[in-house]
């Protein structure tokens, strides 16, 4: 029926906090249609098998219970797909600033256009 996961293993648990339809009345309708779920990572507080109800202790010492869903879970966040308009913005800005520096005596360098620091009395 699956391997035993040792006490102290880094795991992830899942639990439904509020089923669909029982969410707060002020949340949008599309949010009402899905459950409020908890997914948390922590150290397993006893031997278990995948799918068992378990308790974990999180990094900050909080104890949470839920269904054991993963052992050594990976980090699953990223910054999403690239935005084409933003891929070239750095180079475009450098070219724009280089053009200003050549014709305006350093105003694009963050100063006040008079050779001093912004807000300074140079």
Secondary structure: elements and pairs:
Elements: E1 4-5, E2 10-18, H1 29-32, E3 36-44, E4 48-49, E5 53-57, E6 63-71, H2 84-87, H3 89-104
Antiparallel strand pairs: 1-4, 2-3, 2-6, 3-5, 5-6
CATH topology of the domain at 4-71: SH3 type barrels
| SS summary, helix count | 3
The level of helicity is: 10-25%
Instruction: Supply the CATH architecture of the domain at 4-71.
Output: Roll
How would you state the average pLDDT, rounded?
86
User: Span from first to last CA?
Assistant: 77 Å
SSE succession:
EEHEEEEHH
- Structural class, by secondary structure, is alpha+beta
Describe the structure.
- Helix content is 20%, strand content 30%.
- It has 3 helices and 6 strands; from the N terminus they run E-E-H-E-E-E-E-H-H.
- The strands form 2 sheets. The chain has a 4-stranded antiparallel barrel with strand order 2-3-5-6. Strands 1-4 form a two-stranded antiparallel sheet.
- The radius of gyration is 27 Å and the shape is elongated.
Protein traits:
alpha+beta
Short description:
The chain is α+β, with helices and mostly antiparallel strands. The chain has helices at 29-32, 84-87, 89-104, and strands spanning 4-5, 10-18, 36-44, 48-49, 53-57, 63-71.
